[in-house]
Structure formats: C-alpha cells, structure tokens
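Q: Could you fold this chain for me?
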Amino acid sequence: MSLQITAYHHRTPNPTMRVYLLGLGAMHRETGVQPEDYSKWQAVLLEVLQEHHGEQWSPKLESDWEAALAGAIELIKTGSRALHSEGENSWVY
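A: Sure. Below is the predicted structure, expressed as structure tokens.
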C-alpha cells in the first residue's frame, strides 16, 4: 500500500503525502536510521520489485520506480534533518 501511495505521489504530488513523508523521516531519525541507510534500502527494494514484476520488469519500469523512490527518500531525509536541527521534541504528531 505504501509503495502504491509513493508511486501515486510521484505522478501527482499531494500535500498530505508530503507531510506524511516528512513525519516519517522524523520518526526514522528517532529510531536511529541514518541518511546512508536509505540508499541501501532503495537498492534492496528495487531488487524485490524486479522479482515481483518478473518478465514485466523493464528499464522504463526500473527508472520509474527509482525516480518515485528517490523523491520519497528526499522528503524523508528532509524530515530527518529538520528533527535533527530543531531538537528531538520539535515534531508533534
């Protein structure tokens, strides 16, 4: 479900999804996720998506997923940086 939302947000940016991803970054920061962890996660996720799509996997589909994930990851990292620079209690959920 989250991957579908990420793909949809990439095609049709949505303010609600933006806020969600920023908040997700803040939560990840609180649990110790580091910026370099996201590229590892993206690489593994792309492998899983390739396996899932099987013969339908193509360079275009890979490129589309890379772009969607990269956009989401940038917002998540932004949320993480904001929490780090403003202090641990700066986000209210």
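A (continued): The domain at 2-86 is CATH 1.10.490.10 (Globin-like).
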